[in-house]
Amino acid sequence: MAPSSRNPPLFLRRSSYRQRRRRDAARLLPVVGLFLMLMPVLWAPQDTVRRDTAPDGIYLFVVWALLIAFAMLISRGLNTADEGDDPAATADPGPGR
Amino acid sequence: MPFNILVLSCLAYVIFLFGVAWAAERRADRGRLGWLQSPLIYTLSLSIYCTAWTFYGAVGYAARSGLEFLTIYLGPTIVFIGWWWVLRKLVRIGRQQRVTSIADLISSRFGKSNLLGVIVTVIAVVAATPYIALQLQSVTLSFSVFASPTDDGFAPPGTEATAVWVAGGLALFTILFGTRNLDAKEQHHGIVTAIAVEAVVKLIALIAVGVFVVWGMADGPADMIARISASDVADWKLQPGRWTGLLFAAGAAVICLPRMFQVMVVENADERHLATASWAFPLYLFAMSLFIVPIAVMGLERLPATANPDMFVLTLPLAEGQGALAMLAFLGGFSSATSMVIVESIALATMVSNHVVMPVWLRLRPAKAVSGDVRRLVLLSRRMSIGVVLGLGYAYYRMSGGSTALAAIGLIAFVGVAQFLPAMIFGIFWRGATRIGAALGMTVGFVVWAYTLFLPSFGPGAVIPALVFVQGPFGIDWLRPQALFGVATMDPLLHALFWSMVLNTAAFLTGSLFTFPGPVERMQGAAFVRVFDTPSGSPRGWERGLADPEDLLVMSQRIMGDDDALVFFEAEAKGQGKAGYLPDPTPEFMARLERRLAGSVGAATAHAMMSQLAGRATVTVEDLMAVASESAQIMEYSARLESQQEEVTRTARALREANEKLMQLSIQKDAFLSQISHELRTPMTSIRAFSEILTEGDLPPEMVTNYGRIIHDEAKRLTRLLDDLLDLSVLENGTVQLNLGLANLSQMIDRALASASHTKPERSFVIHRDLPMENIFIRTDADRLVQVFINLISNARKYCDSDMPELRISVRQRGGRVTVDFADNGSGIPKASQALIFEKFARLTDQTRAGGAGLGLAICREVMANLGGTITYLPGQGGAAFRVAVPLRLERKTD
Fold it and tell me: Distance from the CA of B303 to the CA of which of B222, B318, B387, B620 falls in 20 to 30 A?
């Protein structure tokens, strides 16, 4: 982080707080996606004789669609704040200052 | 469909694409970028990921292995929806460092190392060959499937000949497309737009076939699901290792593939486009994948078992008599293959020319960097690289026999480019990653990949003898290509992926941990890892006025072209407020020019060429060290100078002080002389006056007596003064002879009191003494010490202005010293005068001049100095108080 003469505020304004959680969500989404896509490994369709291509395929496509939808929702909000990567720059001074 | 019509339609399609690219470039040249730089175009250009492998191969893959084909699209989906982690940083770095290729990125990160650039280029070219072969194979297959002999004898050539024609045509097309000119930045608006059009074509084609299959051949989704469940691929034989491994490989490939890097990072016009692409690109992949399984299932159901599943997309509509749909599918497949080949070979050609050809050429003929026609050389090397890349692809196609499943070929390339991943990811997140580590890791990974996957892909016995597969090289069992370290049960692809990545990462980390990065490397490492913390801009600067602007212009014209260079220089000159074409070579101008040139020939080459002119040709670490040691010497020298100067200053100060002291002494001497003459004159005057009166005679006897006594008194006073002066001079010169002996302090004070009682005998003093304490024997010169005591006591008698005068004499023994305090109860000595009283002729008041010459305390001070003691004025005792301190045992000076 860039050295700053002032300490960044400990608590943020509501909008900044939401912005940070949005970034957390953006970081979390691929992890969730990976987990869901590895689920079939746990179901072990190779050991069953069930005809699971169709249901598992539908599951994968539904997960895929949901991931895309969430990625779209998250990226919309991140787009505008893309430039401010430095927390000192985006951090709100807060009402107390 | 007749072959010649097929060829004609292909040509027409290519010309259409060419027109699109040309129009887009014209728009870009006029500065009307507009929608050319929209997130939509960016996302569509990313669809370059979906090649003929996706268009034809995915169906074949699904027909063979069920849902496993999805990993190839789910992996990139995870990477893209996780753009905040890696892609965002990559794109930011790419824009900030003006990266021209993945080789440029890795070489820049590790100190602009050309070695790494070469390694990456070699790996990328070798890994691309199967991938390009895949495209050739798919186009050739589609031709052979689609074309039918015509009546007029224009029969389709054999597959071999078709492949040659396809390869040659693609090479020509790419050269025309991609290397018509050397772009200012390594961005190709025309090509990107053409690729976006192709992306739309292949998406529409695949969806059209899918829709036809689901709603035309089957009865909608429900029926389709039933057919899937009834088909050969109904039971999904998921292999956990392959599922996970392929997700990883595809995710790695989408970052590491040279063409993906080209469109994603190099051609990126706006970082915000990435946010859109983060969901739009997965959406594209989703749409491309949606109908793959239905098409595969329907193909398995309807087509004969001998039909190649890789061609189902084409053969299904054909078998159903849908000629137009088949034509669309054919063009879709053609689009997929051509767009991939174009971008891949442009990306590779850029790498080859920037990291192999240019450095070699610069090294061979450094002088030509300025005068030679670099522009033509770069273009030529790129064109030749395109030819070589396609030639290699064709060679792979021929050697592998052209019958392997498309997906299997593509995966070989994926694992190959995944070897960049450790160097790249650690490079942008870990400052400790070093050049040696990266070179080691990539080399090891590449060798393992080549040995376990690439070379065996030609078939046993083709490159690696069949015996080696069974027994290992030289009979070393644990080195068998598909069973390294005895791991024989793994799927060969997974085996290669696993071992190449593990050994690559291990070599990389080991190399990084045990080597020390160079200065440039550390600087670049910090710039890459902390890319979001630093404002954009190159840290290094050019020095002012080192380069001749005319030379710069000549060089720039060679690279950028005459017009572009002149426009750029004129604008720069205008910006500096100058007329004409030659701006001053300010650091800012030089930096902008380098950036501009870097877009054409790569950062390392541009820097090297600028250095030729700016006189910083080869700044090696040794040079830096030499400079450092030189400056260290200079610093040492200046430090020495500084200390010498300090010494001189000190001496001068000492001299000045000595001079001041001498001046003071001279003044003191003058004052002393005038004082002494005054002191001598006063008694002499009265003696002369009274003796004159006496010589006149005729005086009453009592007056004679009186005058005689006055003369006697004055003569005594004069004598005492002279005695004192003599005494003082003896004492000051330190030539006094001390008569050392043991004496009792109490007795000495008794003597002093007795002697002092003669002065002002009319005043009665109350003396306070502490007799037990006084009972000390001191080894000193008793007479001298008594002299000091007498002086102090008579002073008190003389000057104490109290009505009831008291004198307190207190003795204290401390350590080896004895202090004797004489304190009276008078008004004391004013603070301002306290410093003066020990000076010669220092008398505070004239009203009580009782015969003293003002030498008493001066003598006391000298006596005490000779006795090894001190005499000081004690303030704050309620009157005048003096402290005499003497050593208990005075030893004779041993001189």
Answer: B222
